[in-house]
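<instruction>
Derive C-alpha cells from the sequence

<record> Sequence and C-alpha cells follow
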Amino acid sequence: QEQLVESGGGLVQPWGSLSLSCAASGSIFGIKAMGWYRQAPGKERELVAVIGSGGSINYADSVKGRFTISRGNAKIMVYLQMNSLKPEDTAVYYCYCNAIGGLYWGKGTLVTVSS
C-alpha cells in the first residue's frame, strides 16, 4: 500500500505553471511536516518546500516567490503550486512526510520545463 500518493507533474513551457498534490494514507499518524524535495539529473536531492503541522513554511531560495506550498484542511494533503517555471526546475519531485513513525516518501513525479 502506497503511503504517499503524488499527482500532477508533466511537461510545461518556461514561465508556465504546474501544480502537484500529495495525499498521505490513513496509516500515517502523528504528522509533523509534509513537503517536497526534487532531484534533477546528475544532482543530489534537494528540499523545495516544507510545511509544518503548526503552519510554518520554508522554501528553497531558488523557488521563493515562485512556488507556494499549502496543505488540505485534514492536514493529510499537501500541494505545491509552481509558477514562472524555469528549465532548471526540471526534476523528479518527491513528496515526503515526517511523522512519528519516521520519514515517508512518494515515488516521485517528473516535472519537465522545456519549450
